[in-house]
Design a protein that fits this description.
With about 500 residues, the chain is an alpha/beta fold. Among the domains are: about 150-370, no CATH class; about 375-505, 60s Ribosomal Protein L30, Chain: A (2-Layer Sandwich), CATH 3.30.1330.140. The chain has 17 helices and 11 strands. The strands form 2 sheets. Strands 2-1-3-4-5-6 form a 6-stranded mixed β-sheet, with helices on both faces. Strands 8-7-9-10-11 form a 5-stranded mixed β-sheet. Helix 3 (about 70-80) runs antiparallel to helix 6 (about 120-140), helix 9 packs across helix 10 (about 250-275) and helix 11 (about 315-320) packs across helix 13 (about 345-370). It binds zinc ion. Zinc ion binds next to loops.
């Protein structure tokens, strides 16, 4: 990892190299997969990039990733000294220094007796690291501190922005990083292939409208704003046939079309269920998971979206990179307008803001990931199963399987276990699964139901993957969280050392 000083110096050096000539931002592709976005080859920052925010987000990402990545090397160092005199204090000193916590004493006693259990210790350290990272997040981490967003959204004509990305771990950072939106102000619910649940969305829509009517939150029901439903599908510009969306056979056209069909079905559901002109607004976004470039298909006022017409942030970047900030902002808005036939002024304003925000992310990937992520495929650290996980705002950290029961997410889980068999099991390491259910503490009995859900899913997981579980290659951490109170997670138990986990917190 480079220090800030080194990075600044190398940026200054790189900034002196001449950037390539800008290209126009207009694109009219025949199909959504027909055009590969242009490579951004400059290393000077775009005039609209928020440099300070990029530094802060990078520091956060590095802190979290390095905590997870330090686990295996640290445990290997401990394993290497297990026969030495003074093993226990030496081992604890190493672990404390590298990971920031100590190992349970009984595991070290086992190691001294010749039973160093890498699988158990790895799972234990993963869960401990996860809990620390989660606690840190809920204790006040504001990745994007944008207090004006809610009022901006209302000014644009929307009282709620509800985003359904694909559950793929490579989209987990879409709110805080790719779109740079404050996670508390945006509803995020991920689904395999971004195929969101229509009934659940209608329920959320109803709840939202009811709150406006009863409590005037976030604004009064008589204000002419609408609910904005957004789908984020994804593709890979480096390896479109293999690293795109698994749920749609890595076919970008299919992923985009399926997202659009689902949006229209939701709109239809609201219109048919509630009369009096009830409707919602729609937005479809495609994400290149190799570069974090977005393509926005802007909807017309009546909800029409043309899949062949989109604005691609990398084209806008290249066209505006040598302008001053004011010129760049004005050209950017003009380009959005070029692609927004029939859209409201509010929609144009919102999409302009999303594209502007994404320019910072393009520079983020350029600067810190050498223009294109090295891990274009899966490299998640653990599986997250259940409902919740608001704290996961980083790319490729978690494979999500959202569910109430194992049965409803069997396909997602099987894919997850297959991915982790390649990532962990083939290296002799277990698959860490965090089972988590968030609940609303003010609802009577909600906590008990969340706890029961956790246990039921844990049992079903162990039954489904019994061989892995018996071999110590599948470990679970059970946790719940009162999301209404905004609290940190509460760990119920772990399959590793139940007593140690419960005793440690
Ligand atoms: Zn996907």
């Amino acid at each position: 990892m480079l220090s800030n000083r080194h990075r600044t110096a190398s940026n200054a050096r790189r900034a002196r190299t001449r950037p390539p000539a800008p290209r126009r931002a207009t694109v009219h592709a025949d199909t959504v997969s027909g055009v590969r976005p242009p490579a951004i080859t400059t290393t000077q920052l775009h005039p609209l990039t928020d440099r300070e925010q990029n530094q802060r987000l990078y520091a956060y990402e590095q802190r979290v990733r390095s905590a997870f990545d330090a686990i295996v090397p640290t445990l290997k160092r401990v394993e290497a000294i297990q026969q030495k005199d003074g093993f226990e204090p030496m081992a604890q000193a190493i672990v404390q220094q590298s990971l920031g916590f100590e190992l349970p004493n009984e595991t070290l006693a086992e190691a001294m007796a010749g039973g160093f259990d890498m699988r158990k210790l790895f799972a234990w350290a993963m869960f401990e690291t996860y809990q620390r990272f989660s606690d840190d997040f809920f204790s006040g981490n504001n990745l994007i501190d944008d207090q004006t967003f809610q009022s901006f959204l209302i000014d644009c004509g929307f009282h709620t922005m509800d985003v359904s990305p694909c559950a793929d771990g490579r989209l987990a950072h879409v709110i805080s990083y790719v779109l740079r939106l404050p996670y508390r102000e945006v509803r995020r619910k991920s689904y395999a292939g971004a195929m969101f649940d229509i009934e659940n969305s209608v329920e959320k829509w109803t709840e939202t409208e009811f709150l406006r009517f009863r409590e005037g939150r976030p604004n009064h029901a008589d204000e002419a704003t609408r609910y904005l439903k957004t789908v984020v599908y994804h593709f890979s510009s480096s390896d479109p046939d293999h690293q795109g969306c698994a749920a749609h056979g890595s076919d970008t056209n299919k992923a985009a079309q399926a997202g659009l069909d689902r949006l229209h079905a939701f709109q239809q559901a609201v219109e048919n269920t509630f009369c009096c002109g009830a409707s919602i607004d729609l937005l479809l976004i495609g994400l290149d998971t190799d570069t974090d470039t977005i393509r926005v298909h802007v909807s017309a006022e009546d909800g029409t979206i043309d899949l062949r017409n989109y604005i691609d942030s990398s084209y806008v970047y290249l066209e505006t990179m040598n302008m001053n900030a004011a010129q760049a902002a004005s050209v950017l808005e003009a380009r959005v307008r070029d692609h927004s036939e029939g859209a409201t002024e509010g929609m144009i304003k919102l999409v302009s803001r999303l594209i502007t925000n994404n320019l910072s992310q393009l520079d983020y990937v350029n600067e810190f990931n050498n223009r294109r992520y090295a891990d274009i495929g899966h490299a998640e650290r653990f599986i997250g199963a259940g409902i919740g996980f608001e704290e996961i705002q980083l790319r490729n950290l978690t494979y999500f399987a959202y569910m109430n029961t194992v049965e409803e997410a069997t396909a997602d889980l099987d894919v997850g276990v297959k991915i982790f068999t390649g990532l962990n099991v083939t290296h002799g390491l277990p698959i860490p699964v965090v089972i988590r259910f968030d609940y609303h503490g003010h609802v009577p009995g909600a906590r008990d139901r969340a706890e029961a859900n956790c246990k039921r899913v844990a049992d079903a997981l162990r039954a489904r993957y019994s061989e892995l579980a018996q071999d110590g290659l599948l470990h679970t951490l059970l946790a719940i969280r009162d999301c209404a109170a905004g609290e940190t997670i509460e760990v119920l138990e772990s399959s590793v050392f139940a007593k140690s986990i419960a005793g440690a917190h």
